[in-house]
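Supplementary Methods. Inverse-folding protocol.

Structures were first reduced to a discrete structure-token string of length 144. This string, shown here, constituted the complete conditioning input.
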């Protein structure tokens, strides 16, 4: 009997300085951090990730203002989504509203009991934000 391929969802919290990645567990039930990486290396990092993991979808945090309008970062993300779609044409890329995800991730890190010094490592915040984006996505699509 053949092995059933396990497909994951990959979430990206793209930033100018750091980009957080998160993935689902093998059953697409909950989010797990992958790490934080320099944005200029993220396509290479994802290619490496895909060599070891089957991904059915990539979701990207999409920065909108609280009133739903676009902001300067939205254009950067639009370009990044085009780059992702070109690099991985067989994997759908879906933008999802990320409004407040970094702020919420900061609160989660505080509640987790991490010391202020450890919380201030920005990489933790970016990967936590990617996890929150993904968990929110899973809950809203009925996967969690």
């Amino acid at each position: 009997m053949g092995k059933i391929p396990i497909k994951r969802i990959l979430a990206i919290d793209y930033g100018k300085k750091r980009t957080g990645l998160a993935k689902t567990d093998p059953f697409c039930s909950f989010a797990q951090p992958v790490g934080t990486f320099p944005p200029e290396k993220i396509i290479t990092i994802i290619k490496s990730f895909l060599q070891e993991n089957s991904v059915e979808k990539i979701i990207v945090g999409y920065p909108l203002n609280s009133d739903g309008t676009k902001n300067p970062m939205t254009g950067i993300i639009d370009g990044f989504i085009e780059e992702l779609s070109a690099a991985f044409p067989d994997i759908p890329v879906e933008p999802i509203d990320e409004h407040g995800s970094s702020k919420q991730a900061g609160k989660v890190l505080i509640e987790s009991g991490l010391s202020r010094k450890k919380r201030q490592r920005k990489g933790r915040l970016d990967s936590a934000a990617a996890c929150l984006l993904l968990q929110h996505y899973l809950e809203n699509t009925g996967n969690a």
